[in-house]
Amino acid sequence: MTDSMVLRDERMKQRIELNTEPEENIPGFILGNALCPVCQKPTPVNEFVARFTPNPCECDPPTIAGRHPVVRYNEAKGQQIVICGAGPSLNQFRPFIEKFKGEIWGTNRALNYLHGWGVTKAKGVAIDPSTRLFGEVWTPPPETEYLLATSVNPGLVWAIEALGYPIRYFHSYRGVADEVALYQTLYPPTALASFGLNVPNRAVDVAEFMGFRRIYLAGCDLALGENDKFYAGGEEGHNKDDVTLEGSVDGKHFFRTKTDMLMSAVELARKRRRLKTQGVKLTFLGNTLPRALQNQPESVLRRVIDWR
């Protein structure tokens, strides 16, 4: 399935139509460079995982019901949480995070930074079905608990299982046929995260489902930092050459933000308003794109991006 994104520039009277390809269409999504020792079919894992995965294919489905528990509704009712993205501004909030008394989640690469700082209670959150997490980012996965979407690559599950770390599942909406019915058939009731395109967005959905009433979002810049830095550790993004945009909101200039980041920032601004009506406070830490958009009326958000 391919989603269509329409960007409008009212001043330039310009219309840009883009297509966002699912990960399945990205070269390298399925590496297929190892064979299952049972059925001899190509596996959805790389050689790193194939070394310790005895049955790395559909012979051993990774997310069957009962294999791992699911995230439960209201299990964290009334508590507070800080959800960390890997954006450049994350470093500014290291003292805040190190002293934080509530739950801490690190999405994707952010988990590496947190554990590198000694914040070992930080849990890992992932939704990405590509092989990048266990083949590049979490190598090896830090010792902690993991909250994984049932859509993650099977190799990530095997990599974490091989180390004996606990896993809990939730669902991340992908838009495939009969997806919700499949979830209802195979799993106990749990969160279905569905707004925005990036993992911090989906993590906010999960936190809301779990009953957190104070949600801080740190390192979720959704725009490049100084000197085009993509991540808090100064690394470049793997897709840094994708279509990029730039613009200003309330005098703050944002240089080089990708289309998926822009969409996610708009959705976070909308989500913040919806949560406020439910008594849930979502706070954007730092001078980020979501924070710049948070007080903009819906008419402005629609002009920023029109998602079809």
Average pLDDT number: 78
Write down the overall geometry.
globular
Strand content: 15-25%
Structural class: alpha/beta
- What is the third-level CATH name, the topology? sialyltransferase cstii, chain A
The low-confidence parts are 1-34
This entry's quaternary arrangement is single chain
Domains counted in the coordinates: how many? Answer: 1
How many beta-strand segments?
13
Number of helices: 10
Any idea what the CATH architecture is? Alpha-Beta Complex
- From the alpha carbons, calculate the radius of gyration and give it in angstroms: 19 Å
- The helical percent reads 25-40%
Task: Provide a descriptive summary of the structure in words.
The protein has a single domain (70-307), classed as sialyltransferase cstii, chain A (Alpha-Beta Complex). The protein is 27% helix and 21% strand. It has helices spanning 47-50, 94-99, 110-116, 132-137, 154-163, 179-186, 199-210, 259-277, 289-293, 298-304; strands at 3-9, 14-20, 80-84, 103-107, 123-126, 146-149, 167-172, 192-193, 214-218, 244-249, 252-258, 281-284, 306-307. The strands form three sheets. The protein has an eight-stranded parallel beta sheet. A hairpin with a 4-residue loop joins strand 1 (3-9) and strand 2 (14-20).
Structural topology:
Elements: E1 3-9, E2 14-20, H1 47-50, E3 80-84, H2 94-99, E4 103-107, H3 110-116, E5 123-126, H4 132-137, E6 146-149, H5 154-163, E7 167-172, H6 179-186, E8 192-193, H7 199-210, E9 214-218, E10 244-249, E11 252-258, H8 259-277, E12 281-284, H9 289-293, H10 298-304, E13 306-307
Parallel strand pairs: 3-4, 3-9, 4-5, 5-6, 6-7, 7-8, 9-12
Antiparallel strand pairs: 1-2, 1-13, 10-11
